[in-house]
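Re-running the complex after MR caught last week's input typo. The corrected sequence lines follow. Everything else is unchanged.
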Amino acid sequence: MNHFECSRCGVLNHKTVVACASCDWPLQLDAWKSSRHQLRRLSLDTSCVNAKQANPQINLLERWAVEGRVVLERSNVFLQELKGHSRQAKAALIPPHPAVWKLGIPGQSELGITTMLGGADVGDEVKTVMFPTTTTVNRNQMADVDHIRDHVMTGSHAFVTLNVNDFTRHGKQADLRRRGIWVFTPLEVTQLLVELYSWDA
Ligand SMILES: [Zn+2]
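Corrected-run output:
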């Protein structure tokens, strides 16, 4: 496959371009340095709840959120997937993704503070990227796909996960990136943010 659909605007881009031809959304890492787009809204996977504050990079993201540098969001499937009271209590503190803008739906038809213009529904395509050899995905795998779907539809900028097997290994990170879907581990995203914006780590 030589062309990939931009998950932000739907335009087809050749696999070698560094940013989307239509909306400028970065499709390669280097493009962030000179981009008019900024990495600010981050979706957290369930693996990043950090109830015990044991992950220093997630602690750092949480500090940056308090300082107003980033916005941390959880997907709508997030709470259903969590087990354990302390993790649920912690997750409830992270604001959910804003409602997706939908034409003709009362309360969601006007772009404003509480609604965002959503990206494409990338469910089926992402499922193939994440689980290429699986004919029937199980519930946990489907929840992973739904996380990315939610992340894209709500227009969030990057998805942060510790689950490297499902989201980044075996070329998955690059495959998603060609579509404008940015998936990072907490370490990767904090390193990139420090590099891009010279924030204190
Ligand atoms: Zn685009």
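None of the earlier attempt is carried over here. Confidence is low (pLDDT under 50) at residues 104-115. The pocket of zinc ion is lined by residues 6, 8-9, 11, 20, 22-23, 25 (CB under 6 Å).
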